[in-house]
Amino acid sequence: REKEGHQSVEQERKGAELCFPQRPNSSCRKPTLHWSKAVLLYSVLFCISLITVALNLLVIISVSHFRQLHTPSNILLLSLAVSDLLVGLLLMPLEILRSTTCWVFGDVICSVYWFLSGNIICASIGNIVLISADRYVAICDPLHYPTRMTVVRVKLNVSLCWFYYVFYISLYLKDILIKPGRYNSCYGECVPVINDIAGIIDLVLTFIVPVSVIIVLYMRVFVAAVSQARAMRSHVTAITFQRSLNQANKSELKAARTLGVLVIVFLACYCPFFCYTLVEEKVVSDSFVFFLIIAVYFNSFLNPLIYAFFYPWFRNAVRLIITLQIFKRHSSDANIL
Q: Where does the secretion signal sit in this chain (predicted)?
């Protein structure tokens, strides 16, 4: 009887470690994380998620509300902010739950999560490519910019970008969309498995090619900015030479700093995860992969800081939004530039 009692206690203990004790033969084990560490992790990550939503929502309201901001460049910022808002609103919370607790939402929601994740992240990368092209034309070919980068054309490019990635991700994840949960090894798990060939093609199309385009365009922009600064410095008079020299140096440093931050932060957030997917076909739920995915999502927290906070008009718009001035009549016509 005592032996049976010990066996019963042991079974209960093992059952408590399972995600679904009522399915002892097919249930995954619960992630082992001390409650204090779990509370700290949840608090930090959910705060980042909320701030990501708030910052990108401010960008969306600013560009949508104020007519002065209805420009081709800001339309691209708006599209980027929408994708980053969805990252903070949907992807971050679901990834926190997927990797730190048992997946309790079922196989269908798991497939939907990976589908949304692929679409939103790829759309964010595509938007950054479009922003790179916009700035390239604006700086390297300013005379043709008004005709090449119209609001209608930019809206069309943004729409094509989103629809292209919906179609692409549908093909890429067709296996788990057709049969949800087919790659889960136990009940309570949410992982996709991609074969080697599809993984390499995806790495090339969604990361290597876009990153190459971004780097090439931004290097051209940087060279053009430095050339313009040197041209201005060579045409100053002797009296204002030193002052213009300092301004030119500041322009070069500002261009280098801004472009460097854009490229380095993007690469720092995305490279680790895509390098991992190159060598591992199954995205498992361990802590290492969790932080790689969070690093990708963290780029959506940094994007509004990099692309919007550096602009004075954004600070003016946020001031009017926070003080509820946007609810006044004709506030959309306010001069915030």
A: none
